[in-house]
Design brief:
The chain has 24 helices and 27 strands. It is of the alpha+beta class and 786 residues long. It folds into 6 domains: 41 residues; 104 residues, PAS domain (Beta-Lactamase), CATH 3.30.450.20; 96 residues, Beta-Lactamase (2-Layer Sandwich), CATH 3.30.450.20; 128 residues, PAS domain (Beta-Lactamase, 2-Layer Sandwich); 102 residues, PAS domain (Beta-Lactamase, 2-Layer Sandwich), CATH 3.30.450; 155 residues, Histidine kinase-like ATPase, C-terminal domain (Heat Shock Protein 90, 2-Layer Sandwich). The strands form 6 sheets. The chain has a 5-stranded antiparallel β-sheet, with helices on both faces. Strands 7-6-10-9-8 form a 5-stranded antiparallel β-sheet. A 5-stranded antiparallel β-sheet has the order 12-11-15-14-13. Helix 18 packs antiparallel against helix 19 and helix 19 packs parallel to helix 24. The chain is elongated. The N and C termini lie far apart (206 Å). It comes from Alterisphingorhabdus coralli.
């Protein structure tokens, strides 16, 4: 078969065309395959993004069919997404889904959207679950999803809603707290305020308004009235600016006028970020006063502790020394440098140990560690320290509430010595008690026999077993009554013991035992409430007492006879003495004829002796009367100045004869004195005569009269040879005696005149005192009542 060339060309052209078409088809298919793979990957990525997105799409067709992911089914509490919308309704306890009311509302919203194309936003709740779903619906694009399908975007708003509700709750709480805080600030008793960032007052409470003396807060804010005056040229705003700049709370203490009175306030400015400055004022007037009072109390307490005999030392919480009194420093030889350096507790113990002021211990570090526990003890601790020098210390460690410690050191060395001495005294007392000649017994306040000595049992002839039973008084007296000569007199002993025990009065008595022994007894109340019963055997002294009584009666009788004899003899002596004096005067006047010079001397001597003897007789008579209390007195008011002048005038010749110097001092207030002029002249005359005659030639006599309280004080002194002490004592005691030459008075002068002077002064109700010293002089002090 022959193929034409035309046909061959056409065939080739067809084959070429087919080949080109096949190539294009292959290329196109490869390109589409590549695009499909790309779209498939994108689809998977988008599907993954949708699955992981917090918002899931749900397509609801017009016939109610659903298109969505399986994740939505789990959101609705189902195993899988149902095919139709109606199946999302909760149908009882076995299933879940949307609650009935929310399902109806969602159904109506979807229908409305499918009809009108309007969107909606709705929250639905999943049955038997806390999950809440936020659904936003719109009409799907007809180009992609024809048939009026509704596209729902579902968002799991459970967590967000809970947060919203919590935020709402927190907002309500914050609102209520703010209202409460505002009410609290308003009701606060302290002034409070708030400044904005430009430091202007925008809020003040009622206390602030009252403090500045206004009634309206708005007026205070409008006038920018500050609570306190500027301090050191700086206003309150300047201090608030410091707080804002530093970002730290600023405090200062100032004085301000509050409610019309000056008070001490602590001003506090509190920065509140960039929102301004809050401030408040605390009245610290009472606190400041309390601090001052506490400071004064502490100083007074430390002054008091410094005056204690016990050593006191105080440490703070970090165990540093903060106080020690003078007694502690002396007791432990503490240096001031240690105190100034705030020495630590352990170091102080080391220093005390170095000075030998701590007890000797084998392991000092362990001992010191135990004492350090004093800071942590709940109660006080007490110890006794015996130092190397024999000092006994009582140590009390008192922990303080602030963690510190106070130590008290009481030196009990003397107490220990006293206790030792007491034990010794008790032993001595026991030995002495048993060896006394007196029978002793001590009864306790309850009436029981407490102590007795050996002689008590021997005197009463009572067995030791009876006394060792410590019988009561009544029981013991029943036994003792059998030993009395007259048993009924035991009641007297009982009354004496009862009086000493109950009435605390000491009484005594005498008793006689059956063995004819006589005892003098007494019951003495003791300070501790006990009663001491003593018995002294006076049997041997009875005869002596009787003899002494008879002798005393004889002495009294002799004294009476002596006084009668002196009185009688004084009167009897006057008659012959008067005759002798009269005849001597007649001889001296020449009635018996002229006398020779020797005879005149003899007659003159006789007259002087008569005069002297007459004075002595009168003195003895007056002294006897004064001792008997029968000395007559006739009192009258006499000027003491005139009285003394007359006394000296009578003795002027004798004073000039001896060349004496008399110094008289009479105070202007001496005045008058009530005396018997004759008797007092006799008394003072004896004193003056004693000085004039016995101080030698050219002596000095001093007389001083002045008023003393309600009395006249008269002093007469001389610079004579003085008197022996025994004679001075006898005169001051009212004993009339005379000196003799061996006692230092070569003239043997009598003391009768001074003794009479004393009796006359005493009869006037005055006082008489003689003071004298050999080779120095004599002084007589007379005090007479006005």
């Amino acid at each position: 078969m022959t193929v034409s060339s035309t046909a061959l060309i056409g065939l080739i052209a067809l084959f070429a065309l087919w080949f080109v078409a096949a190539g294009w088809a292959v290329l196109t298919g490869l390109s589409m395959r590549s695009q499909a793979r790309t779209l498939q990957r994108r689809s998977k990525r988008l599907t993954r993004l949708l699955d992981e997105s917090p918002t899931q799409p749900l397509l609801v067709r017009s016939d109610g069919r659903l298109e969505g992911s399986e994740r939505l089914g789990r959101w609705f509490g189902l195993d899988a997404l149902p095919a139709y919308f109606s199946e999302l309704l909760d149908e009882g306890a076995q299933g879940q889904g949307i609650k009935d009311d929310d399902h109806k509302a969602l159904d109506e919203a979807i229908r409305a959207t499918q009809r009108s194309g309007s969107g909606f936003s709705l929250e639905v709740r999943v049955a038997r679950s806390s999950r809440r779903l936020l659904i936003k619906g719109q009409l799907s694009d007809p180009a992609t999803m024809p048939g009026n399908a509704a596209l729902l975007w579902i968002y799991d708003a459970t967590a967000s809603q809970e947060q919203i509700e919590q935020l709402g709750h927190d907002a309500d709480e914050a609102r209520r707290a703010f209202q409460a805080l505002s009410g609290l600030i308003e009701a606060a008793p302290m002034p409070m305020w708030y400044r904005t960032s430009d430091l202007k007052l925008t809020l003040v409470n009622s206390a602030y308004v009252r403090a500045v003396g206004h009634s309206e807060a708005d007026a205070v804010i409008a006038q920018a009235i500050e609570l306190v005056e500027p301090l050191d040229g700086r206003s309150a705003q300047a201090f608030a600016a410091d707080a804002a700049e530093s970002g730290e709370i600023q405090r200062r203490t100032v004085s301000a006028t509050v409610d019309g009175g000056r008070r001490t306030l602590e001003i506090v400015d509190v920065p509140i970020g960039n929102n301004g400055i809050a401030g408040y004022a605390i009245d610290v007037q009472d606190l400041q006063s309390a601090r001052n009072a506490l400071h004064r109390f502490r100083e007074a307490q430390r002054d008091m502790l410094d005056s204690l005999s016990a050593g006191v030392v105080q440490f703070n919480a970090d165990r540093s020394l903060i106080f020690s009194n003078q007694s502690f420093q002396r007791l432990f030889a503490i240096r001031q440098q240690w105190i100034a350096d705030d020495i630590e507790f352990d170091r102080l113990l080391d220093r005390m140990r170095e000075g030998g002021k701590l007890p000797e211990t084998r392991d000092f570090p362990a001992w010191r560690l135990e004492r350090r526990q004093w800071f942590h003890n709940a109660d006080a601790s007490e110890e006794n320290w015996l130092l190397g020098d024999g000092t006994h210390l009582r140590v009390i460690a008192q922990p303080m509430p602030d963690g510190g410690l106070v130590l008290f050191f009481e030196d009990r060395s003397k107490e220990v010595e006293l206790a030792s001495a007491r034990d010794t005294l008790l032993r001595v007392r026991t030995a002495m008690f048993d060896n006394l000649f007196e029978a002793l017994a001590v009864f306790a306040p309850d009436g029981k026999l407490h102590l007795w000595n050996r002689r008590f049992g021997e005197s009463w002839q009572v067995e030791e077993e009876i006394l060792a039973a410590h019988p009561r008084v009544d029981e013991l007296l029943k036994v003792l009554a059998k030993r009395l000569k007259r048993p009924a007199r035991i009641s007297e002993v009982r009354d004496v013991i009862r009086s000493a025990s109950v009435e605390r009065k000491q009484k005594a008595g005498r008793l006689r035992l059956t063995n004819d022994r006589h005892f003098e007894y007494a019951a003495i109340p003791l300070p501790d409430g006990n009663v001491l019963f003593t018995m002294l055997d006076i049997s041997d002294s009875q005869n002596i007492e009787s003899a002494l009584r008879e002798r005393n009666e004889a002495l009294v009788s002799a004294e009476r006879i002596k006084s009668e004899f002196l009185a009688n003899m004084s009167y009897e002596f006057r008659t012959p003495l008067t005759s002798i004096g009269g005849f001597a005067e007649m001889l001296a006047q020449g009635l018996a004829g002229p006398l020779t010079s020797d005879a005149e001397e003899y007659v003159d001597a006789i007259l002087k002796s008569v005069e002297r003897l007459s004075k002595q007789i009168n003195t003895v008579l007056d002294l006897s009367q004064s001792e008997a209390g029968t000395l007559p007195l006739s009192l009258q008011s006499v000027p003491i100045k005139t009285f003394l002048a007359d006394m000296l005038a009578e003795r002027e010749a004798r004073i000039e004869h001896h060349g004496h110097h008399v110094a008289v001092t009479i105070a202007h207030d001496a005045g008058d004195v009530a005396i018997d002029r004759q008797r007092m002249a006799q008394a003072i005359g004896h004193v003056l005569d004693n000085s004039i005659e016995h101080i030698g030639d050219r002596g000095r006599i001093v007389i001083d009269a002045r008023r003393q309280a309600q009395a006249l004080r008269l002093i007469l002194s001389d610079d004579g040879p003085g008197m022996v002490a025994s004679l001075v004592a006898s005169i001051n005691d009212g004993i009339a005696a005379s000196t003799d030459a061996k006692e230092g008075d070569s003239k043997g002068r009598t003391a009768l005149g001074l003794a009479l002077a004393r009796e006359i002064v005493l009869a006037h109700g005055g006082q008489f005192e003689l003071a004298s010293q050999l080779d120095v002089g004599t002084m007589v002090t007379i005090v007479l009542p006005q």
